[in-house]
Please model this.
Amino acid sequence: MGHENDGLRLENTSFGMIILEYQPSNVVRPPVTGRNPVDPGSRSAPQAGVGCAKLWDSMTLHVRRAEIADLETLVSFVIFEAKEAEGLTKEPERVREGIRTALINDSVAMYWVLENDKSELIGNISVVKEWSDWNCAYYWWIQSMYILPEFRGRGLIEKLIEDIRAAARQERALELRLYVHKKNERAIKAYKKSGFSDSNYQIMTMKI
Model:
């Protein structure tokens, strides 16, 4: 049986309550204008366009810093990204508070959004900074990145990364970094197409 709450469509299954869709009533989802020519039904991790890099040159797009008015759209993007990339279902209220905190205080994280010519948000990217005392400068870590499925396969990942790379240069950052789930082969392929390479470092964790 399905339920709806503030744009969150849920369904009870044998595995428990799952998110079917998250779309706040005050967020306008851009119209479908085409799908990935390589994988038309794909809703998985972000991917670079195959044979169509910089197709965004023919589109009117704008990357800008996110504002508090973009909050609900960013929440939906992050929830979709977590589900697609790692199969995780995130609590909307917790995600909302996390993003709101960063939008109020950009020392926590910085968000940018990708707009089309109708001022509709079709993607986003966020960055957190890591201070290096060795180098007296910041590394910029890409924390999240999402493109609406109907706009994938057009080289938009490259568009977002190029703009963030330019911003990092302006701030005299050391380099862009990111981490990706080792089984997320589609995302790994996309990031390598965008210019990222394997690191000599291994990420390790400890529960607290």
